[in-house]
Amino acid sequence: MARSSEVVPVGATPAGVFDIACRVAESGGSLPTEITEAARAVAGELGSFPPDEVRGALERIITSPHADDGLQWLHEAGVLEQVVPELDATVNFSQEAGRRHKDVWEHTKQVVMQSPAQPVVRWAALLHDIGKVDTRVMLSEGKVTFHRHAEVGARLFETLARRLGFPRAERKRIRFLIVNHLRANAYEPEWTDAAVRRFDHEMGDALPELVELSRADVTSARPGRRQEAARNIEALLQRIAAVRELDARVPPLPPGVGNAIMEAFALPPSRRVGELRKVCEDAIERGDLLERQPVEYYVDFLRRQGISVDKP
Question: Distance between CA atoms of 180 and 192, rounded to whole angstroms?
Answer without folding.
Answer: 19
